[in-house]
Amino acid sequence: MKAVILAAGEGKRLRPFTETMPKVMLPVANKPVLEYVFDAVKKSGIDEIIVVVGYKKEVIMEYFKDYEDVKINYVVQDKQLGTAHALLQAKKHIKDTFIVLSGDNIIDKNSISNLIKDKSEYSILIKEHPNPSKYGVVFLEKKILKKIIEKPREEVGKFISTGIYKLPSTIFNDIKELTSQGHYALTSVIQSIIKENKKINTVTAESWMDIVYPWDLLTINEAMLNNAPASVSGIIEKGVTMKGAVSIGKNTSIYSGCYIVGPVIIGDNCEIGPNACIFPSTTIGNNSVVNPFSEINNSVIMDDVQIRSNSYISHSIIGKGTIIGNNFSNISGKTTVEIESEFKKLEKLGAIIGEDCNIASNVVVEPGIIIGKRCEVGSLNRITKHISSNSKVM
Amino acid sequence: MCGIIGYSGFRDADNVIIECLKRLEYRGYDSAGIGIIDDKLKIYKEVGEIKNLEKNLPKFKGSTGIGHTRWATHGSVTKENAHPHLSSNKKIAVVHNGIIENFRKLKDDLLKKGYKFLSETDSEVIAHLVQDNYKGNLEKAVFSALKKINGYYAIVAACSDEPEKIVGARKDSPLVIGSGDNENFLASDITAFLKYTNRVIYLNDGETCVATNKDIKIFDENNKPVQRDEDLIKWNLKDAEKSGFSHFMLKEIYDQPDTVHNVFRGRISEVNRAVEFNEKVENLLKNGIDSINIVACGTSYYASLVGKYLIEKLTNIPVNVELSSEYRYFGTRRESSLVIAVTQSGETLDTLAALKEAKNSGCKNLVITNVIGSTATRISDAYILTQSGPEIGVAATKTFTSQILVLFLLALKIGMIKNKIGADELYNYILNLKDLSRNVRIVLDQSNDILEIAKKIKNSKSVFFIGRGINYPLSLEGALKLKEISYLHAEGFAAGELKHGPFALLTKDTPVVAIVTRGPTYDKIIANIGEVKARGPKVIAVADDLDNEIEKHADFVLRFPSNSELLSCIPIAVLLQLLAYHVANLRGCSIDKPRNLAKSVTVE
Q: Where would I find the H helices in A74-185?
């Protein structure tokens, strides 16, 4: 069976990180989200993947050029009009029943296998979710899908659509008809199929995770680190303490006096320490540096990042290539963050800092602050407001 | 300059050879041909790119064959001059890469013996000469034939009387053996057969080899059998794909944030304040070096000129950069000086010859190259790899910046050994190196601004690039990139030299790109811009992002980020590459395969 993976979207709510990469390439435990999807799909027995790409497609195609054991075809969606329109781009590759899934949701292989095995012509994967209000809530009758309500304002049900379907190739006729009327979302196509009295069977997913906001990266990173295998290469100097599942990449040096408590993943070609502390649920990307006496806790540090001495980083995300000066400190705590004119309350969040920023020494950042990409922050600043990309704080 | 391939195995040889030729197309693409041993020896040739050959090729049976993609040296681009060349009895076919210096005499002798020539090429001589020496064994015939030849060559021959055999030989031109399961390959480079096998055997100069689908035999220059082990190639064929970019060149420009990192991967340590190379290189540098000669061609030559500036600045050792083709005949050789050969492919004929000259004169020598296992790495005392991954675009991009960075690391290392650089200074340079990736990313992000400037210069008669100090070789490289892919006339000049001649060329249709860094000669280059503008041309300044003065002087400004004057050469180089790319793209040029050019030049 073939799988169509939708990976064309930009992910505006995940800015500043999505200014330079598509949403599906955001790293979780040093692997892009899309790679988890590829892995699950491959292991569930799919033999060919059709990836619909669009926004910053080169980043995806370059990363997966060496991906093995499954055939990958790319199709391009030039304008990101909607999920049904995206799926339509894959039409020429599909002759039989297929599955479609989104490249930005982490899914396990068993759920996909169960979906494939399901006897019904149309099937959908659903999942119970604690915050159903931002998804399509599903209504069932004897496991048959009756209705999907998109982003209900009141709590109407707990089960939501994961957006993962098994569909016959005839679906493309329905999509063509609906997109010609200006309906570009896959949910609208599914609603119309329900109206035609076709039965859509529901299958419950085991685990499914979605990334909508930047801080979702922290939760998902934490979850995925628990499953990541520990493996140590590189140079570990005498006097380093490592507990729990710690994974250290090739060519990385961990200098004396470092204290690392897993689950932690550190990528290739890094230099850590001496005397640095890395605490659980932290991921550090490739080519990054952590200088002496710094502490990093429950954070995602991407590639090429430099963290200078005496810094404290907790519940934070630091984008690729950013330099964090000496004595940096972020306060992590309760906060309300505004994203795309929505206000989100969060129990605990540190700083979110985009790609290629330059933060000078002795800077303090308050909880939930988002600093855009390529910003410069002068020394001795206290950052209390969001900073948009390419800004300078004197 | 050509690509050659030979195959003996179990698959349909025509398909395999076409596939391999596509991988060799960068070596030449004006005509191509294949020869397959079907019921008899069958040849098919076409003028143009490989896809032209593939389209018109009749179906051959047979699982032994040879192929060739040509970049003309002797004789014009015609079907007759394309390879393979057949012997007069139509039983032996030969493909050849190289030049036969005594071919006129050999041809006269063969004509006297009654052999008929169908082409104007030097290569055809080999086919007839092999027939002339053939007594039932192809490798013996090839061996005897090659003894009569002066010049350099890599050849593959096949004979319909011995249908499972291909015979190869090389002297000063590349040929490698690919060892598969029940199939074997001979090719100009590894990428040709990497799809089928990653096991490689290197053939040395003067050696001959015979491959069938079962086994491989190698003979030395006295025709004695040689045993040689296989090497495993780690990189993957897919490293050489476009990944959604419209051209290889563009992909390779965008590879640079990673390739700059790869240069210092495992070579610098921030905590230890150290630059480290492999043992051979370290030993070479430890012994007193009082001067350096760098030999290189083309883009590598310009990278070396940048390197000269860096090494002299950081070590105070005099550096002399020479074109390989000049050095090999006219250069001075001193035993106390270190000769550094810079070549992307490790196969550039002139550079190899210069390297051999240096070696013969007893000079210590070091190679900077991108290709492990290339001839240059095998004949030099020591080598440093640029670790850039395969470069397919004919116009060098990422290997240019990587070569500069290797030279920079060398300068740091020698500076440390000579006590010219202290630990703290080194630490600062290491931090600057680590900033390079992001500085390159920032330039890449300005692609649209650069495109706007490209629109302004695409219809110019000529474009001039000027700079001082380290920016002078960058001007040369900027001009080279532009002319080689966009076919616009372009020249680079040292800014101070303009008034000594080139001024006469300035008109309002000749925009000038001025590279401006805020170093000791800042005021001078600003004055030069004034002089240029007074004569009518528009000036495009390439300036760092904190330069607030420049807008007052130049018509347009392109910005690069900089926190170190020495290393600003890297983002500037990337900016100039993008400018050349956009101009060529707007002019509709064949960017990855510019006319008349080939990727690695293995002829003189």
A: 83-88, 109-117, 171-180
Q: Considering CB atoms only, which of A253, A273, A321 is closest to B441?
A: A321
Q: Which of B251, B356, B538, B599 is catalytic?
A: B599
Q: Which domain holds residue A292?
A: 219-393
Task: Please report the ipTM that was assigned to this predicted complex.
Answer: 0.76
Q: Which residue has the tokens 């990192």?
A: B261
H or E segment and range at residue B477: helix B471-486
Going residue by residue through chain A (394 aa), what tens digit of pLDDT does each one get? 999 999 998 888 898 999 989 999 999 999 999 999 999 999 998 889 999 998 999 999 989 988 888 888 899 998 888 888 888 888 888 889 999 999 999 999 999 999 999 888 889 999 988 888 888 888 888 888 888 888 887 777 889 999 899 989 888 888 888 887 777 888 888 888 888 888 888 898 888 998 889 999 999 999 999 888 888 888 999 999 999 899 999 989 999 999 999 899 999 999 998 999 999 999 999 999 999 999 999 999 999 999 999 999 999 999 999 999 999 999 998 888 888 788 888 889 999 999 999 999 999 999 999 999 999 999 999 999 999 999 999 8
B242-442 maps to CATH 3.40.50.10490: yes
- Kindly determine whether residue A65 and residue B239, on different chains, have CB atoms separated by under 8 Å: yes
Is B599 marked active-site? yes
* Among chain A residues, CA nearest to B237: A66
Q: Are B243 and A306 within 8 A, CB to CB? A: no
Report CB contact under 8 Å: A304, B434: yes
Q: Check CB contact under 8 Å for A269 and B266.
A: yes
Query: Which two tokens mark B214?
Result: 């079962």
The CATH fold assigned to B446-604 is Rossmann fold (3.40.50)
Per CB-CB distance under 8 Å, the chain A contacts of B437 are 287, 304, 321
Specify the fold of B2-238: Glutamine Phosphoribosylpyrophosphate, subunit 1, domain 1 (3.60.20)
The DSSP code for A226 is H
Say if residue A226 is in the same domain as residue A205: no
Predicted TM-score (pTM) of the model is 0.76
Token reading at B545: 């992002």
Do the two domains B242-442 and B446-604 of this chain adopt the same fold? yes
Residue among A65, A271, A273 whose CB faces B269 most closely: A271
Pairing of strands B539-544, B512-516: parallel
Which residue from A43, A165, A200 is spatially nearest to A113, judged by alpha carbons? A43
